[in-house]
């Protein structure tokens, strides 16, 4: 009849064996492969390091064209390499060099801005008369394209007055546009042009030739086409004014809620 040995009996039998095995706690110190840091290290970290070493070996193996690597293993190694590079990029700290932090702009104003004396001169420096003439021509072109028999036409002065009226409306807040021509309206607006002319101009004003615009389904369509000439001209003129070394960023520069 067989007898089941207890844990203590098993321990005694092993201790008395002739194999010379000794289960002292200090035995592993004499082991040439013993690594104290590995014993006391976090298990998850050890496994992660081992897996990383395996993946690195796979990538090195696939990087050598002389190695006969299965396509699946090569593809897996390439994917792992991309992931590793992406992960490394996220961990990388951004350190700017001294030459990147040094101000390289030009703070002195150009001569043509120093001779400006009045607000209208400064406005025309950024919004030149050539641009006003361009808007007048494009508006008249749109009127003709829309209806050849339409007698409505605008001049450069009309466009200039229209811009002035719109600016004034932004400063004097009233319930609606016609209110500016009422008893509570502003005399400067009323003297610039009649309400009917302003409404006609507001409905017809254009900044680009519609006939040259690409259809919305075209992949090369410019969503800003209708005002593209104005944007390009203003950006070019604004770039004439040099940036100062120290700028104040507030809600006027950055979109805020």
What brief labels describe this structure?
53% helix; 13 helices; elongated; mainly alpha; 257 residues
| DSSP strand count | 0
Q: Output the helix-strand order.
A: HHHHHHHHHHHHH
Main beta-sheet strand count, sense and barrel state = none
Mean pLDDT reading: 77
Shape category: elongated
What gap, in angstroms, lies between the N and C termini?
A: 87 Å
> Which stretches are low in confidence, meaning pLDDT under 50 for 5 or more residues running?
17-31, 83-89
Describe the structure.
This protein has 257 residues and is mainly α. It has two domains: 35-92, no CATH class; 111-238, no CATH class. It is 53% helix and 0% strand. The longest helix has 21 residues, at 43-63. It is elongated, with a radius of gyration of 40 Å. The N and C termini lie far apart (87 Å). The model is unreliable at 17-31 and 83-89 (pLDDT under 50).
Please outline the helices and strands.
Blueprint: H1 7-15, H2 27-30, H3 36-40, H4 43-63, H5 71-91, H6 98-101, H7 111-114, H8 119-126, H9 129-146, H10 156-171, H11 187-192, H12 195-204, H13 228-238
Give a concise summary.
The protein is 53% helix and 0% strand. By secondary structure, the protein is mainly α.
């Amino acid at each position: 009849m067989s007898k089941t040995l207890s844990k203590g009996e098993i321990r005694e039998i092993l201790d008395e064996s002739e194999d010379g095995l000794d289960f002292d706690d200090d035995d592993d110190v004499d082991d040439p492969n013993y690594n104290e840091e590995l014993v006391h290290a976090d298990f998850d970290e050890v496994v992660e390091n081992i897996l990383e070493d395996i993946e690195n070996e796979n990538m090195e193996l696939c990087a050598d064209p002389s190695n006969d690597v299965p396509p699946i293993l090569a593809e897996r190694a390439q994917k792992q390499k991309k992931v590793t590079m992406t992960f490394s990029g996220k961990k990388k700290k951004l350190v700017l060099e001294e030459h990147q932090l040094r101000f390289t702009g030009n703070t002195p104003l150009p001569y043509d801005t120093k001779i400006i004396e009045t607000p209208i001169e400064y406005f025309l420096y950024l919004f030149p008369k050539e641009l006003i003439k361009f808007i007048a021509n494009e508006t008249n072109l749109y009127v003709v394209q829309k209806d050849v028999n339409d007698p409505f036409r605008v001049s450069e002065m009309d466009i200039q007055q229209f811009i002035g009226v719109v600016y004034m409306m932004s400063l004097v807040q009233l319930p609606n546009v016609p209110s500016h021509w009422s008893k509570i309206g502003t005399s400067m607006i009323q003297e610039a042009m009649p309400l009917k002319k302003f409404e006609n101009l507001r409905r017809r004003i254009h900044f680009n030739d519609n006939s040259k615009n690409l259809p919305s389904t075209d992949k090369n369509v410019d969503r800003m086409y209708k005002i593209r000439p104005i944007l390009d001209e203003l950006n070019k003129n604004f770039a004439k004014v040099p940036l100062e070394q120290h700028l104040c960023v507030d809600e006027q520069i950055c979109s805020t809620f």
